[in-house]
Specification:
The structure is a single chain. The chain is of the alpha+beta class. The chain has one domain. It has 12 helices and 7 strands. Helix 8 packs across helix 12 and helix 10 packs antiparallel against helix 11. It is globular.
Amino acid sequence: MSEYQYYEFLALDRPLDERQQVEVRALSTRARITATSFTNEYQWGNFSGDPHIMMERYYDAHLYLANWGTHRIMLRLPRTLLDLRTVEQYCVDPHVTAWTTRQHLLLDLTSENEAEDWVEGAEDSLSAIVGVRAELAAGDLRPLYLAWLAGYGTWERDEDAFDEEEEGDPEPPVPAGLGTLTAPQRALADFLRLDADLLASAAQASPPSSPVKEDPREIARWIKSLPARDKDTLLLQVARGHGTRTQAEILRRFRGEPDNDRNDHPRRTVAQLLDTAADIRQKRHRRAKAASAKSKAL
């Protein structure tokens, strides 16, 4: 089977201007480029650009696929909406990494599995996943926990993926709602090959999530109370084409920082999560076997 690589980038907060489109065109003469997207695929050769630099300069979301088993999602958010210190709790090198530029925080979420067969339609995954970016901006940290969990889930199919002492590493703060993922979160979990039994193991310590409903009158009163300087700054951001980002920033400031440490459950270790997942898997197999035997007996 020949090599195959797929690259996709999206500009969400602000489209690329003509100069920026010329700059990315210089990286590939074959790519399909618009003001909001860059798409290319290779069946021989390699892309000459650096996805990290492209994300820092131009784009807000990136998907990469290779038929030797690499799945990668990269996201860029304003630093005002997601703090690096928060993200670092969920980093597990090389599967979940993060860094910052002057204005942005960038996430790199990667899954490797050389033994897995190619999944048809995987190139269409970014549109299903990209919603997690807005969720992170709103303070929902479930996508980060899912990526962390998927990273350590690699251990189930590759016993040499981590050093043995990492079995005792504690999990990061467990966000609410792991048992009821959103559609983008489900798509992210699937793309990162997160095992369903491992997710069920983690969800045991995750309280139900509460839907967020803002009262428009309360928002109006809060905006009215903002200092004039803050209002001017926000309006200037909108005038410069950052309307989506400004909306997220306003709502984040209105809601306050999410309390993701309120979970009263003790932190579990990586080994405990993996062992519980193995128990769940074993019980599920026994139930399926018993159901099959019962069906055949009828």
